[in-house]
């Protein structure tokens, strides 16, 4: 807990932070269990985990400690197993697991760009070496990216519309630009501009109209 607190710039470990790290840890364990081929947490999973980690004595020792701990909690094991089952069900078939708090942050993005935002956020999480998408990763990917100079449709620097228009490198029709302006998060606007303009170039277009915008976003 102290290590994670230092990594995140916290000076105090409070109850809220303990819950946050516990949730992340449970998701990571649940992902491992799924990777071992189990759909639920059982004592058999511990033996498989030990076999997988046999070359890592410290991890084997931790697994033994957890198994022994659960063995002493015979009256509370059902509650523990139920919690793990909920996290197992949250593990996606593809991509990284997300904490509930991180998913709540993603919900702030408009529905039509959430898939793109999710892909970008997971890429950022992998770049940081994270195994779970946390609220901090979401904030960094969507809100912590420094702004870049914005290009106007003529290729010059557009200082006045950068926050609203994103990094446009070709002309945009008014209807397509209006759709772009509806996106409230600058980082997502930049993602949308990159994807839509890449699609337009692939189609041999010299500008972005409403059809190119919608098809470029996968609508």
Topology at a glance:
Blueprint: H1 2-7, H2 15-35, H3 43-52, H4 57-71, H5 77-90, H6 100-106, H7 114-127, H8 135-143, H9 162-165, H10 174-181, H11 186-202, H12 210-216
Number of helices: 12
Poorly predicted runs: 144-165
**What general form does the structure show?**
elongated
| Average pLDDT reading | 76
Question: Based on DSSP secondary structure assignment, what is the total number of beta strands?
Answer: 0
Q: Classify the oligomer.
A: single chain
Report the major sheet: none
The class by helix and strand makeup works out as mainly alpha
Relative strand content: under 5%
Order of helices and strands: HHHHHHHHHHHH
Cα distance spanning the termini:
43 Å
C-alpha Rg, in Å?
A: 23 Å
The figure for the number of domains is 2
- What percent of the residues sit in helical stretches (DSSP H or I)? 55-70%
Structure description:
α2 crosses α5 (77-90). The chain is elongated, with a radius of gyration of 23 Å. The protein has twelve helices and no strands. It is mainly alpha-helical and 219 residues long. It starts with a helix and ends with a helix. It folds into two domains: 1-91, no CATH class; 146-216, no CATH class. It has helices at residues 2-7, 15-35, 43-52, 57-71, 77-90, 100-106, 114-127, 135-143, 162-165, 174-181, 186-202, 210-216. 22% of the residues are buried.
């Amino acid at each position: 807990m102290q290590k994670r607190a230092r990594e995140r710039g916290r000076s105090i470990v409070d109850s809220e932070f303990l819950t946050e790290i516990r949730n992340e840890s449970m998701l990571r364990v649940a992902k491992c269990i799924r990777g071992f081929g189990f759909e639920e947490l059982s004592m058999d999973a511990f033996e498989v985990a030990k076999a997988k980690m046999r070359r890592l004595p410290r991890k084997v020792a931790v697994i033994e400690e957890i198994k022994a701990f659960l063995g002493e909690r015979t009256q509370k094991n059902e509650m523990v197993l139920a919690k793990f089952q909920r996290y197992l069900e949250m593990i996606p078939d593809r991509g990284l697991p997300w904490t509930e708090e991180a998913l709540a942050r993603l919900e702030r993005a408009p529905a039509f760009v959430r898939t793109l935002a999710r892909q970008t956020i997971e890429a950022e999480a992998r770049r940081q070496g994270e195994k779970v998408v946390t609220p901090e990763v979401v904030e960094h990917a969507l809100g912590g990216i420094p702004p870049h100079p914005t290009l106007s449709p003529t290729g010059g620097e557009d200082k006045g519309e950068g926050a609203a228009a994103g990094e446009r490198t070709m002309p945009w029709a008014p209807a397509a630009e209006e759709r772009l302006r509806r996106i409230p998060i600058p980082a997502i606007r930049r993602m949308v501009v990159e994807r839509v303009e890449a699609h337009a170039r692939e189609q041999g277009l010299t500008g972005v109209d409403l059809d190119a915008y919608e098809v470029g976003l996968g609508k």
